[in-house]
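$ ./design --mode recover --in tokens.txt
reading tokens...
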């Protein structure tokens, strides 16, 4: 009774947020890490939404062994059929179906009566139950639904076969007291509730998503829907790491309630999400921000040195933040590098390991101290490139000229297998010129959607990490490149994106 199921919706509600779109390989990588984190259920996507979503849900369902894999569906046969087909290979499949229950949604969005809504719930859940052993029903906008009707809706879903009933605070409107009261009412009044798991799904529009979810747990909910770093529609969802660490750290307040989350995997999971999407974690983000365990004031530092508990309510190690940053240098060998990368979660095949080692050696000539953050940046810039190197464009050399009284020019030489191609271009700045020269070489037009550059570590010799997003008629593609030279980093990032774009074209 006291185990809380963590239902992760990073790959569905989280991915819906602007800037967090992932391709199928990225979703699969994230799903495997969510499994290592120990989530009980992962919502892999919304299968009916697009062929790409369907393929991602299917790939995840086929790869995940321990967590349940579910797909979201509106309360229609078409949506439910798509979900059922996408998750059919899952070890533990679940169909999640939803319909709005608040009067405002019934009247203005669905244009149906309450009676019709109940009919649709009954039909959809029964239909899903015929196709899948485990069905979850969500009453969208539950927190703004008349409580008698919400109880009726959930009762209908349970009678039709739902094993989990979810109470979303879809618009993030509730307060902890109110939300706790809604869950209590459901626990006390819904017939058959003892045969179902009650779930929370809170949005963060008023910054109360985690507080509301925990109030729901206190009132009897035994599943919490959340996302890594709280990403999701608008202001996001409840943050998984905050729920897991809140329950673990404040056992005195919440009682003997535990999640199965391996909290030591939290930092790695959050960093993977950030690496994949290119969205940085805010320094002050609870649990996983770089400042979450940093003590700046002298008084605090003194206290922590004599006894960490003076200012630390949990240890950095308990969330997988390693305090010790092992520093590697130019005399470190490939074995030491590979071991360190393994600790950081990167098991590279022989070709990639050799490539990262060569990049590491080149970096060691330019930078004295190479930290974990440098290694992650190097490894990440290689992880995403394709296996067959002979079919990819690679950078051979570049020369760029720019100044405040001249047009920037770039001359770039790329190689692909045995072909070597050189082109020159002019631009309003050096990056523009370099990207234009690449475009001429590959003979494929693209739009530059996003370009970001950040220093990986402090100091002047820091690596610059460049994130590039380009698009063509078929889709958008991200690339990451690192170098102590920002122009080189930019070209490398562009080439990762370009190779993905050309692969998709084929
Ligand atoms: O916020 C919401 O109501 C949802 C449902 C589809 C569960 O995401
Ligand atoms: Zn939601």
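writing sequence...
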């Amino acid at each position: 009774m006291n185990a809380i199921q963590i239902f992760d919706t990073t790959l569905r509600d989280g991915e819906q947020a602007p800037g967090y779109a992932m391709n199928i390989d990225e979703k699969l990588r994230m799903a495997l890490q969510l499994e290592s984190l120990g989530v009980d259920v992962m919502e892999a996507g919304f299968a009916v939404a697009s062929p790409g979503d369907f393929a991602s849900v299917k790939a995840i369902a086929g790869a995940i062994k321990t967590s349940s894999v579910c797909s979201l569906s509106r309360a229609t046969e078409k949506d439910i059929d798509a979900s059922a087909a996408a998750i059919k290979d899952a070890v533990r499949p679940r169909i999640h179906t939803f319909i709005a229950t608040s009067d405002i949604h019934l009247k203005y969005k669905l244009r149906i009566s309450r009676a019709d809504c109940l009919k649709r719930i009954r039909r959809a859940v029964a239909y899903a139950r015929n196709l899948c052993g485990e069905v979850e029903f969500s009453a969208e906008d539950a927190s703004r639904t008349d409580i008698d009707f919400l109880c009726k809706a959930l009762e209908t879903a349970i009678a039709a076969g739902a094993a989990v009933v979810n109470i979303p605070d879809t618009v993030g409107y509730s307060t902890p007291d109110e939300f706790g009261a809604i869950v209590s009412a459901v626990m006390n009044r819904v017939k058959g509730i003892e045969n179902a798991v009650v779930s929370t799904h809170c949005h963060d529009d008023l910054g109360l998503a985690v507080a509301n979810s925990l109030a729901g747990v206190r009132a009897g909910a035994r599943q919490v829907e959340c996302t890594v770093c709280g990403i999701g529609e608008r202001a996001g969802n409840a943050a998984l790491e905050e729920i897991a660490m809140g329950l673990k750290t404040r056992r005195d307040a919440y009682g003997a309630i535990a999640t199965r989350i391996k909290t030591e995997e939290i930092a790695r999971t959050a960093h993977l999400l950030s690496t994949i999407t290119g969205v940085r974690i805010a320094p002050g983000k609870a649990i996983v921000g770089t400042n979450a365990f940093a003590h700046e004031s002298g008084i605090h530092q003194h206290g922590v040195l004599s006894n960490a508990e003076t200012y630390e309510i949990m240890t950095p190690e308990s969330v997988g933040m390693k305090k010790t940053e092992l520093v590697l240098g130019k005399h470190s060998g490939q074995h030491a590098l590979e071991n360190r990368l393994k600790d950081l979660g990167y098991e590279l095949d022989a070709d990639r390991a050799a490539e990262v080692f060569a990049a590491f050696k080149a970096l060691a000539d330019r930078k004295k101290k190479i930290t974990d953050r440098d290694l992650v940046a190097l490894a990440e810039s290689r992880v995403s490139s394709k296996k067959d190197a002979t079919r990819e464009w690679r950078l051979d050399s570049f020369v760029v000229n720019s100044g405040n009284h001249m047009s920037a020019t770039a001359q770039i030489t790329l190689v692909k297998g045995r072909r070597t191609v050189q082109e020159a271009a002019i631009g309003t700045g050096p990056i523009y010129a370099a990207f234009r020269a690449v475009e001429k070489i590959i003979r494929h037009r693209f739009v530059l959607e996003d370009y970001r550059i950040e220093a990986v570590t402090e100091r002047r010799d820091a690596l610059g990490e460049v994130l590039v997003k380009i698009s063509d008629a078929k889709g958008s593609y991200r690339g990451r490149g690192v170098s102590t030279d920002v122009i080189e980093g930019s070209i490398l990032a562009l080439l990762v994106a370009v190779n993905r774009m050309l692969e998709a074209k084929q």
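exit 0
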